Amino acid sequence: MELIIITGMSGAGKSCVVNSLEDLGFFCVDNLPAKLIPVFAELLKNSGEHKRVAVVTDVRAGEQFSELFEAFDELKELQIEYKLMFIDAKDDVLMKRYKETRRKHPLIQGNYDSVSNAITRERKLLSRARSSADFLLETSNLSAIQCRVRVLSMFSETDESAIHIHCMSFGFKHGIPNDADFVFDVRFLPNPFYVPELKSLTGLDKAVSDYVMSFQESEDFGKKLFELLDFSLPLCVKEGRSQLIIAVGCTGGHHRSVTFAELIHKHFQDKGYSSSVSHRDILK
After folding, report:
1. pLDDT (tens digit, 9 = 90+) per residue, 57-75?
2. Can you tell me the distance from the alpha carbon of 123 to that of 64, in angstroms, rounded to the nearest whole number?
């Protein structure tokens, strides 16, 4: 039985993750107290009815959340394998989401407490879980659709490769992705932004990608980049990683980074790896 235990910051997108896992055939249970996880997992394992299971436990359970790591020890005693997935987002993003939805944070204490204080307390409570996670999904700059694509790429059973590679482009002026394993800066390459007929296009347009790759420094960088990634990937597989996130950044995330993210994606697809690609800031 494949067991995924999901936790993370309130408002970070756990519901979106659960919905995506259900679409992949996972049997999902939300808001399960930590101390019940071993009992629940053992029942499902013995029944044999569900091969893929995901449970969500977080601070909504109150003081019982502190029993999470005791639950992990019980799972090990029961010889039930599990993976911990942590869903996170930046504090300012969480604040904005709570303001937009007008929902009450589960750690709000009294009428005069603030969401900001609640987020700070929650992050402290979850710090150990975050540092112990097998999967970290940072949703600050992900739309609901992008979050779904990321989850599907991580847990799809159709992947033939032992590791899934997700390539993404981003703009440095919008911040570096917190969940990236490799981050490459291509701002030193000639910028199509300053070419009038290319400014409004993106790296998904052939005219832009051809322009970026028409320079010798771009071609040389690409060769060295692929050499580094081809060397590193087998070592990541050997380490036991199931996913690798490769982020490429330029200034705005429209031209150079998109071009190289697409090239990396195609490079690994051609080599037979499971690969996906997204462009975080292409519409900004």
Report:
1. 999 887 778 889 999 999 9
2. 16
The structure's pTM equals: 0.60
Supply the angle between the helices 256-270 and 216-239 in degrees, to the nearest 10: 50
* CA distances for 196 relative to 46, 47, 191, 260, 283, angstroms: 65, 64, 11, 21, 18
Tell me which amino acid residue 122 is: E
Contact 221, 189 (CB under 8 A): yes
SS3 helix, strand, coil % of the chain, rounded to 5?
A: 50, 20, 35
